[in-house]
């Protein structure tokens, strides 16, 4: 029987974030002996929140040195927890913090690691993982005989664990740190204000803007300021997440006066991201294959394009509105604003 360890770090509020609870739910679906391994300044409140999860034990590495993300301390803590737990399978959320250290931890433990896993399951009674290859074009299910097997589960793929809170009995794991472990210090965090943040992974809708917003329109003029207002108003009214085609972010990167809020982080596609949202609306995009590959995990896709022969019309969108996005979005914003004011 496998001993399945869920690795999680506590957040600034002392609790676990959604991706950690998703990893816990995935781990529970595999059966076996469940162990929770927590890292952070104080891990007891987080352990109490998930006390009813059915874990055989809770182990933790706690202390001020483990508050912030840092390769040396996170890797040392994870390896120590894995050994204390006697883990054969280790599941962690594929957050940026774990993404940086898991391969190194696998090396230290003589194990193997698979990243960007989108599902775990049992195949012939043994754990298996699902992941995508070639920028989400091919899906594979694979198993490994090597143990420990570290699995980084992509956020947003599994419903997070929910259950009883309580008082968990924590087993403290000691990690001997030297000054060399602490050479890197996090001096601060720079992040846009919440209302300026346009990438919202938990949004129900992904709104994607393409280069058409900056192109000359029927009157022979560009209408970039109008485009900017229509897009930002829509984001404000709906709380949607903002994506972009590559062409549009490339224009912005070249320093032209176009959509200044758009960066390469917004780019969807083969060389961009493949976010997960229940719905997506593409506007002024051509719907070319390298762009639409980023829509793999969008359940319902709609597009607005002037060109009825574009890629979206050729079966890549569930619904295509062959229409002027300036007009459509102005009307949509008007209706949304009216609904809000009721
Ligand atoms: C190796 C490689 C990797 C790539 N990776 C990516 C990637 O990750 N992501 C990505 O997006 N692309 C990627 N591309 C580029 C991709 O192939 C397309 O060139 C790009 O997505 C086109 O962007 P676009 O649709 O915004 O612009 P365009 O092709 O210029 O299309 C603009 C569209 O806007 C429409 N339009 C104009 N005005 C209006 C209006 N008023 N109302 C409605 N519609 C209007 C036009 O009809 C047109 O269809 C990649 C290409 C390569 C070669």
Summarize the structure in words:
Helix 1 (18-28) links the parallel strand 1 (3-9) and strand 2 (33-40). The strands form two sheets. Strands 7-6-5-8-4-1-2-3-9 form a nine-stranded mixed β-sheet, sandwiched between helices. It has a five-stranded parallel β-sheet with strand order 11-10-12-13-14. Helix 5 (224-238) runs parallel beside helix 8 (325-341). The mean pLDDT is 95. It folds into two domains: 3-182, 3-Layer(aba) Sandwich (Rossmann fold); 194-341, TPP-binding domain (Rossmann fold, 3-Layer(aba) Sandwich), CATH 3.40.50.1220. The termini are far apart. It is elongated, with a radius of gyration of 23 Å. It has 342 residues and is an alpha/beta fold. It contains eight helices and 14 strands. Helices cover 26% and strands 25% of the residues. The longest helix is centred in the last third of the chain and has 17 residues, at 325-341. It has helices at residues 18-28, 44-49, 71-85, 96-109, 224-238, 246-253, 289-292, 325-341, and strands at 3-9, 33-40, 57-62, 89-93, 112-123, 126-133, 138-142, 149-153, 170-172, 205-209, 241-244, 277-283, 298-305, 319-322. The chain binds flavin-adenine dinucleotide. Flavin-adenine dinucleotide (FAD) binds next to helix 6, helix 7, strand 13 and helix 8.
């Amino acid at each position: 029987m496998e001993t399945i360890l869920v690795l999680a770090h506590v957040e600034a509020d002392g609790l676990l974030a959604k991706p950690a609870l998703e990893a816990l739910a995935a781990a529970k679906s595999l059966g076996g002996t469940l162990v929770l391994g927590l890292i952070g300044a104080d891990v007891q409140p987080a352990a109490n929140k998930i006390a009813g999860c059915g874990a055989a034990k809770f182990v933790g590495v706690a202390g001020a040195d483990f508050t912030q993300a840092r390769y040396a301390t996170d890797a040392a803590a994870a390896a120590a927890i894995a050994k204390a737990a006697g883990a054969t399978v280790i599941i962690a959320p594929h957050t940026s913090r774990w993404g940086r250290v898991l391969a190194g931890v696998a090396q230290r433990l003589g194990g193997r690691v698979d990243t960007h896993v989108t599902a775990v399951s049992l195949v012939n009674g043994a754990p298996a993982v699902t992941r995508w290859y070639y920028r989400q074009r091919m899906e594979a299910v694979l198993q490994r005989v090597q143990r420990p097997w570290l699995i980084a589960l992509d956020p947003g793929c599994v419903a997070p664990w929910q259950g009883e809170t309580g008082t968990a009995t924590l087993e403290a794991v000691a990690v001997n740190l030297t000054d060399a472990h602490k050479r890197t210090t996090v001096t601060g965090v720079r992040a846009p204000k919440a209302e300026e943040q346009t990438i919202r992974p938990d949004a129900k809708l992904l709104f994607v803007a393409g280069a058409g917003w900056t192109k000359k329109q029927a009157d022979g003029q560009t209408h970039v300021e109008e485009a900017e207002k229509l897009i930002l108003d829509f984001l404000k009214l709906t709380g949607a997440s903002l994506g972009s085609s590559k062409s549009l972010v490339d224009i912005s990167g070249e320093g032209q006066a176009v959509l200044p809020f758009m960066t390469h982080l917004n780019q969807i596609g083969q060389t961009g991201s493949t976010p997960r949202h229940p719905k997506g609306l593409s506007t002024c995009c051509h719907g070319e294959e390298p762009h639409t590959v980023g829509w793999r995990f969008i359940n319902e896709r709609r597009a607005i394009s002037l060109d009825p022969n574009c890629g979206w019309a050729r079966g890549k969108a569930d619904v295509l509105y062959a229409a002027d996005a300036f007009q459509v979005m102005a009307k949509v914003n008007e209706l949304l604003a009216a609904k809000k004011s009721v």
